[in-house]
């Protein structure tokens, strides 16, 4: 069973006053590349999330978007450095006495003093949020895999249809192969009769036909095509990722079909080669999206 590399997954949950949303989408890629966009407070969890995604997916470019709504996960409180404030005020009084400066200390003056007032932040309920968040990553990944499997089933059906066409055309080529040699022998005999009349060396005609038959023989290519088709069909039933293997088999099938095309000295064979290459091109496009 093959899986596509494109899909979408979504999961959400509520934890207290927080709303947690995880969305994932994937497209085809040679390797497994995961990009996560989330609030900076949760960056420490990135590797955990990537390991979860890797446990479900082996190939593809995956983008994950994490949204957490609700009250701020940080508690804030104001801290006053009383010792520093006392030192400031003592110094101000000393300056006033020493230089005979009048005036009183206003609250606005105190608020402007550096490092006296600081806002302290403490995280609250992070463990509970992290647990729920990782659960949603699991859920979104499962939904993404389900969608990739559904699309993979459709890809598999389409590919099997094209493989059947190629197999049928391969059988037609096997029937046409011997007729090409016979047609060549008849053409050669006709040409010689036109130039030599009755003085025809039958053995020479047979020898030339044998040489042509050897050059135009496509049996080995057809055997390899049938072997590749069998491997292709078998790989489609595998539960493991087979996208790269299928891509290689498509290249090999193309190689064999091109060889047949170069050997063909017959319009019917040439037409079948064109049809086979068109089917292989469609299969190649679909294989690019298989995990």
TrEMBL record:
**Which ranges carry the Endoribonuclease YicC-like C-terminal domain?**
176-291
Residues in Endoribonuclease YicC-like N-terminal domain copies: 2-156
Instruction: Indicate the secretion signal residues.
Output: none
Names of the cofactor(s): a divalent metal cation
Q: Is-annotated flag, keyword Cell cycle?
A: no
Q: InterPro entries under this entry?
A: YicC-like_C, YicC-like_N, YicC/YloC-like
Q: Name the NCBIfam families on file.
A: YicC/YloC family endoribonuclease (TIGR00255)
- PANTHER family assigned to the protein according to its UniProt record, in alphabetical order: UPF0701 PROTEIN YICC (PTHR30636)
**Name under which the protein is recorded:** YicC family protein
| Organism encoding this protein | Sutcliffiella horikoshii
């Amino acid at each position: 069973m093959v899986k596509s590399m494109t899909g979408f997954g979504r999961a959400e949950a509520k934890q207290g006053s927080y709303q947690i949303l995880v969305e994932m989408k994937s497209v085809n890629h040679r390797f497994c590349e995961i990009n996560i966009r989330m609030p900076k407070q949760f960056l420490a969890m990135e590797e955990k999330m990537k390991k979860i995604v890797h446990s479900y997916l082996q190939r593809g470019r995956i983008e994950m978007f994490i949204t957490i709504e609700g009250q701020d996960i940080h508690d804030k409180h104001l801290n006053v450095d009383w010792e520093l404030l006392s030192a400031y005020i003592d110094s101000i009084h000393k300056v006033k006495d020493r230089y005979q400066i009048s005036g009183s200390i206003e609250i606005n003056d105190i608020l402007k003093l550096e490092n006296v007032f600081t806002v302290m932040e403490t995280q609250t309920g992070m463990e509970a949020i992290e647990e729920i968040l990782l659960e949603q990553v699991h859920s979104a990944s499962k939904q993404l895999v389900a969608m990739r499997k559904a699309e993979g089933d459709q890809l598999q059906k389409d590919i099997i249809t094209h493989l059947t066409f190629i197999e049928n055309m391969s059988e037609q080529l096997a029937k046409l192969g011997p007729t090409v040699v016979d047609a060549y022998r008849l053409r050669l005999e006709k040409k010689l009769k036109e130039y030599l009349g009755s003085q025809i060396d039958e053995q020479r005609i047979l020898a030339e036909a044998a040489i042509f038959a050897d050059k135009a023989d496509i049996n080995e290519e057809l055997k390899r095509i049938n072997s590749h088709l069998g491997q292709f069909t078998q790989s489609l039933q595998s539960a493991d990722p087979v996208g790269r293997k299928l891509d290689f088999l498509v290249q090999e099938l193309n190689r064999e079909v091109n060889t047949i095309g170069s050997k063909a000295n017959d319009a019917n064979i040439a037409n079948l080669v064109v049809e086979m290459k068109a089917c292989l091109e469609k299969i190649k496009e679909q294989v690019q999206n298989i995990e």
